[in-house]
Amino acid sequence: MSDNNSTERTPSKASIVEAMLTKAPGATIADMNAATGWQLHSCRAFLTGLRKKGKVIERTKRKDGSSCYRIVRPRKAVADLPAAAGEDQV
Mutual orientation of helices 13-22 and 40-52 as an angle, nearest 10°? Predict the structure, then answer.
């Protein structure tokens, strides 16, 4: 048993990166590497895992040329919208 009686849990590396990606500026691979200590290929693999879980990842270029990643809300597809009034539903 530890000497620390605190019930607070340390955030996981995955939750740290996901929090970085949900903020407006997003994060670069280098930012993720610095925050977690993960190797660069592991940072890229984490992004792939988020995509497989259904997250929409937006990639933009910063002025210095580095790619910046951010989790965005998915746009509604036309198929997901309710049928227009007066149209027959199948």
Answer: 70
CA distance 27 to 33: 10
Q: What is the mean pLDDT of residues 22-33?
A: 96
48: its two tokens: 């792939």
Q: Do the beta carbons of residue 84 and residue 36 sit within 8 Å?
A: no
- What residue has token string 């691979």? 29
Q: How far apart are the C-alpha atoms of 76 and 74, rounded to whole Å?
A: 6
pTM to 2 decimal places: 0.73
Task: Indicate whether 55 pLDDT > 50.
Answer: yes
CA distance 17 to 15: 5
H or E element at residue 3? none
